[in-house]
Amino acid sequence: MSGAALGLEIVFVFFLALFLLHRYGDFKKQHRLVIIATLLAWYLCFLIVFILPLDVSTTIYNRCKLAVNSSPAESNGSYVTVAPSKQKCFKPWSYIPNGIMPIFWRVVYWTSQFLTWILLPFMQSYARSGGFSITGKIKTALIENAIYYGTYLLIFGAFLIYVAVNPNFNLQWNQLQTIGIAAANTWGLFLLVLLLGYGLVEIPRSHWNGAKRGYLLMKTYFKAAKLMTEKADAEENLEDIMEEVRKVSASIKYNHPLRKCVDTILKKCPTEYQERMGRNMDDYEDFDERQNSYPSEKSLVKLHKQVIYSVQRHRRTQVQWQILLEQAFYLEDVAKNETSATRQFVHTFHSQEPENKIIQYFYTPTVEWYWECLLRPWFYRVLAVVLATFSVVVVWSECTFFSTKPVLSLFAVFIQLAEKTYNYIYIEMACFLTIFFLSICVYSTVFRIRVFNYYYLASHHQTDAYSLLFSGMLFCRLTPPLCLNFLGLTHMDATISHRNTQPTAYTSIMGSMKVLSFIADGFYIYYPMLVVILCIATYFSLGTRCLNLLGFQQFMGDSEMTSDLIDEGKELIKREKRKRQRQEEGENRRREWKERYGNRDDSTRNRVVHTDQKESSFSETSTNRPLSKYTRSNGRTERDRIELLQDAEPLDFNADSINDDPLESDSGR
């Protein structure tokens, strides 16, 4: 089984990242390089989370081998081994041979750092650029990232000059590499604690509120009112942009040098606008550079960028509105079916998508009623209690993981108890659940946050390229400090445990943080305690209240603005519900009409066809009899028709003037 677990997890994590990217991205419309770069960033970050427990179990086994093969007082190189236990060391089922993990972590880590600090920022600017050629987009991306890259180069250059001038410093390449890693991890840890403090409280609370039907329905009404405002704003913005495109398209004719740029812009417009502009466009007029003022290429690049953004936003709001309507209708159905005496779930509207027959067979209306009305609320409550317990354990461990005598971190206690018995399955499960919960708290916050309309991860293939690349950057910057924080909580990091034991392969590539003692002994230990204050602030919704005071409407039960938006959303849902009911009633009437009169229409149609066949056969026999009588007249009529067609001449639309009187025209007959 050596290496088999590693191979299985590599394949599983790849399909997991591909599934999530398919849910948020659009493989058909977005650029392939954007999809590949985002997939690689997500894949590497998820891979670190899933492989790290295997690294922990392999390290514990290697420590056991060192302890067995050496005496209690013998030192093995730079590591001092402990007394061997009487129990024999058993090789874990997921054991990874020596030499594989250091190479694996080095490739994964430096690839992710190259993505997050160099490639993905450049691709962000490239994706948002409105240039019409690859060279133009690259030029725009380099100009936008010049300040970004220049700042880092300036800081790094100043640090190198300081080290070179100061004789007290004698840094080697490995130490410089460690300083760079420490700087990147410090930036990531600063953001990690902020996101973790929000997720530790919000995830259990969201599941607890998920058991409240009235709460979910009110929040859906609130979202409907906000989304309708955003939807109307997106439609108005699209109309304004399309009007500018129409003016530009009308001014720049077919033989203008910038016409190719205009055609590229038109291809990005919705189909209905393309047809409308195509009907109103007259490309047979030549452009006159002396009389008309034409837009420059720079203004067309800006317009192209605005078209891409407005079309994406309009499409996203339309899809989200339909999804929100389905969610609101379903929650209203749940509220109605809770008092049902038949205990069968009845839907107001039938599903627009075809359901799987296997799901229909097992998930019957009775099973759906018991799950939605009875079991699901209790399931969400139990899950919320379990998640809240995990959150309390994480907060306690974050505040006490620096204590080694006695060991106060609960995660470290669990791992050390399992290490004494060499129960590798328990070690891997405990490590996986711990780091998985930490990752869920951090990554879910990344998926939830929204920075106006610049960064927003929308499901159902509605996320733009800029947001996908930005999420990949965040994941690559958050995952390494997240793993180091996990190793600190479990005391697998020698910097925290202060034990000269064999470190994990992941810690070995990070280097010794003793080069920067103020970071290793200060920031890494005491800054995570800030998570307590952030959890308290999230519990009392201080951030939500501040945003509400600033004018950004947030869902708050004790706010008058929230009540008004809930009422507005309820009226919008009622209006859409009546519209959907009228559509279904019309379809049902047409279906009943077809079922009732369909056979009669078919029989009537058959009778008409049979009568036409009789009449045609009768006409054929009647025309065959007097054929000699009417042959000459029919031939003459045909000759007259041919002569009239030959005399017709095409009209000259290119003439300078058109005379209304045909008698005065020189060319008239």
Within the largest sheet, what's the order of strands? 1-2
> Oligomeric form of this entry?
single chain
Low-confidence stretches: 71-86, 615-638, 640-669
Order of helices and strands: HHEEHHHHHHHHHHHEEHHHHHHHH
- The strand count comes to 4
Main beta-sheet annotation: 2 strands, antiparallel
The helix count comes to 21
The separation of the N and C termini measures 98 Å
Which range does the strand content fall in?
A: under 5%
Mean pLDDT: 81
SS class: mainly alpha
The radius of gyration computed from the alpha-carbon positions, rounded to a whole number of angstroms, is 36 Å
Q: What portion of residues is helical?
A: over 70%
Shape: globular
Characterization of this structure:
With 669 residues, the protein is mainly α. The chain has a domain at 1-69 and 90-215 and 357-561. It is 72% helix and 1% strand. It has 21 helices and 4 strands. The protein has helices spanning 4-24, 32-68, 100-128, 134-165, 173-210, 213-251, 259-268, 271-280, 297-337, 357-362, 365-400, 410-421, 424-448, 465-489, 494-497, 505-510, 517-526, 531-539, 542-549, 560-624, 627-647; strands at 75-76, 79-80, 450-451, 455-456. The strands form 2 sheets. The protein has a two-stranded antiparallel sheet. A two-stranded antiparallel sheet has the order 3-4. Mean pLDDT is 81; it is low at 71-86, 615-638 and 640-669.
Secondary structure elements and pairings:
Layout: H1 4-24, H2 32-68, E1 75-76, E2 79-80, H3 100-128, H4 134-165, H5 173-210, H6 213-251, H7 259-268, H8 271-280, H9 297-337, H10 357-362, H11 365-400, H12 410-421, H13 424-448, E3 450-451, E4 455-456, H14 465-489, H15 494-497, H16 505-510, H17 517-526, H18 531-539, H19 542-549, H20 560-624, H21 627-647
Antiparallel strand pairs: 1-2, 3-4
